[in-house]
Amino acid sequence: MHVPRLVPLIIVMALALVAFITIRDQQRRHPERLPWTPLSLLAPIGPFTGTKLAQLADDAPQCRQLLAQAGVAFTPFPPVSGPQCGYADGVTLDTGGSLATRWQPAPLTVACPVAAALFVWEREIVRPAALRHFGKPLDRIEHFGSFNCRRIAGSANWSEHATADAIDIAGFRLEGGRRVRVLGDWNGTPEEQAFLREIRDGACEVFATTLSPDYNAAHADHFHLDQAARGMRGGSFCR
Question: In this predicted model, what pLDDT tens digit does every residue of 164-174 receive, in sequence order?
Answer without folding.
Answer: 999 999 999 99
